Amino acid sequence: QQQVKQSPQSLIVQKGGISIINCAYENTAFDYFPWYQQFPGKGPALLIAIRPDVSEKKEGRFTISFNKSAKQFSLHIMDSQPGDSATYFCAASTGANFGNEKLTFGTGTRLTIIP
Amino acid sequence: EAGVAQSPRYKIIEKRQSVAFWCNPISGHATLYWYQQILGQGPKLLIQFQNNGVVDDSQLPKDRFSAERLKGVDSTLKIQPAKLEDSAVYLCASSFRLAIIDTQYFGPGTRLTVL
Predict the structure, then answer these.
(1) Domain range for A52
(2) In CATH, what number is assigned to the domain containing residue A43?
(3) Which site among A42, A102, A107 would you substitute to test the B interface, given the most B Cβ atoms closer than 10 Å to its Cβ?
């Protein structure tokens, strides 16, 4: 199973709040989990990524939480700002240790931060 | 550093016509990807090049899609003949190495509408 399921499809959060986006996967061979941010009219841009040997990774206001046993990972955006309004994609892949594999993307979450 | 360039940005054609998209990756990046992003979905890898050789084209509909990367720099993706279901944004990305953990930098994409 190569599918990555992402939820919610859309999310509205008040400025200063915490935005949480969830993803679940079936393929236990996945060993690389990046999150991408995409603004309208632009290509996706890598935001943050995690390997399954850690349960959490934090970069600024962005945190990935990873639950290997549940096969789930989530993106938390702390102190959400209007500039964070974008579409977020989770992704997963195998092959992190030994080379090249393709990324399987989730269906995306459109995040809107309201003042 | 200049980003990934793509042209045209928009293209409208009728079904059964042909269309070509061009991509210029970031200078020095050996790996080039073409993705198809249908509205409301995450990007799906069509083809991946390492220099001027194809690494993975397993998801490329080869009866109508073709791609080349002459001289290991610029790349062209062609659709001939186009179908209605080909309406999507076609994204080009590049990375420095052939490694899934290497950041993929995306271009702005070409939005194709097939009527």
Answers:
(1) 4-114
(2) 2.60.40.10
(3) A102
Which of B97, B98, B101 to mutate to test binding with chain A, by most A CBs within 10 Å of its CB?
B101
Query: Quick check: A20 contacting B, CB < 8 Å?
Result: no
CATH of B5-114, one of 3.10.180.10, 2.60.40.10, 3.30.450.370, 3.30.2350.10: 2.60.40.10
Note the pLDDT tens digit of each residue in A67-108: 999 999 999 999 999 999 999 999 999 876 666 678 899 999
d(CA A47, CA B43): 16
> CA-to-CA distance for B48 and B22, rounded, in angstroms?
15
Domain segments of chain B as ranges = 5-114
**Tens-digit pLDDT profile for residues B6-45:** 999 999 999 999 999 999 999 999 999 999 999 989 999 9
Distance CA B29, CA B96 (A): 4
Would you call B35 helix, strand, or coil by DSSP?
Answer: strand
